[in-house]
Write a structure and sequence with these properties.
Layout (H helix, E strand, L loop, with lengths): L6 H9 L1 H4 L13 E10 L9 E2 L1 H16 L8 E12 L5 E2 L6 E4 L7 E9 L3 H11 L3 H5 L1 E5 L4 E5 L3
Parallel strand pairs: 1-2
Antiparallel strand pairs: 1-6, 1-7, 3-4, 3-5, 3-6, 7-8
Helix pairs in contact: 1-4
Amino acid sequence: MPSQLTSSLKILRQKCTKILEAVQPLRPIQDRERGYWRVTFEFDNDEAENNNRWNLSSREKMWTWLESFISRGCGGWGAWATFEEGKLERFDGEDGWIGELGDQEKLIGSEDGPAVGRIKVFCWGEVVLEIYALLFLATNRKVKRCGAQWIDANGDAVVVVGES
């Protein structure tokens, strides 16, 4: 299989050298290993934006930019992204699902309106750093505040960046 490092991803890596210094895998990542970046954030539909929540406008701009970059093939072969929204719940192991952030999470639909969004960007291990740089730019640096994790095929967090 040829390299997944596109010219666009090479440029991102060059422009984000300092940011990428914070991206330290917990174990070596193989080039042909599959996984995904997961970013979970709070949002509301107000136009005002604060440090803890994204507004509708910033969320739409982020997704449009990310979708355009990936759909043009700039993210490499096999890169794709999803966006989910709903209420975040966590399995605590004893009492079932509860409404807090945690390790074993799921998003459920909400009639009260969405409170949490989750971006997943699937990629090969070869481009883990570059895809984080893509998320950094697409989210206008917000990924540093809400945090991100690269999850391997076994469901383990191999890279944890920021406050996730």
